[in-house]
Amino acid sequence: MEAATVEEQLNEIKNNLATVQQRIVDACIKVGREPSSVRLLPVTKTVSAERLRIAYTAGCHEMGENKVQEAREKSEVLGDLNIQWSIIGHLQTNKVKYITRFAHEFQALDSLKVAAELDKRLQAAGRGMDVYVQVNSSGEASKFGLPPEAVEDFVKQLPNYSSLQVKGLMTLAIFSTDLDRVRACFVRMRDLRDRLRQNAPAGLSFDELSMGMSGDYELAIEEGATVVRVGQAIFGKRPLPDSHYWPGFG
Question: 192: exposed, middle or buried (C-beta count within 10 Å: 0-12, 13-18, 19+)?
């Protein structure tokens, strides 16, 4: 089978994007939300830099990466494009120095050690970064993120790190065909977000809820997601199953 041409890939990604964006609109209309209140973050892990260049032409100007090394390499290869990079996967302190060079957003903050290192590096660079606090909404031991009951105490420490611009919460719901169990994760996040809006320290914002991926983003929107992280519905199936990329899947 011959490889798809650049034009064929461009048309495929454009069509997939249009489908996802229409489904976002439909999900918003269903619950009386403004479609503009939901941001689509294309997830580009395992997608080649060449294909991402095509995706940029198709309209993907934000890209979310799970692994720092993969994001770093792609940001260098695609450095001539004005891509806004978001790190959406677990971050070790020894990798922080890399993301402060190219990423504009970090969606998986669940450690004060990482917060301190990130703040130190950002202060030295004279810049800030948008961050989301990652929450383990499903209670699965295999997943990163703070347990919901630990989040309020955690965020009370975040004003100590002035370069971190806290925007909201992020989660991965349970990977299940039981939609009630998936929805429960999203409801838990929305309720937590609402409490934080009342009790969080001054200067921290909890307006954003990053939740929902290719298989469940419409459900997430119904329960209040403001950012949906969609990969396969835009770029096609990955070469390996989800369990290879995300802990707790499969």
Answer: buried
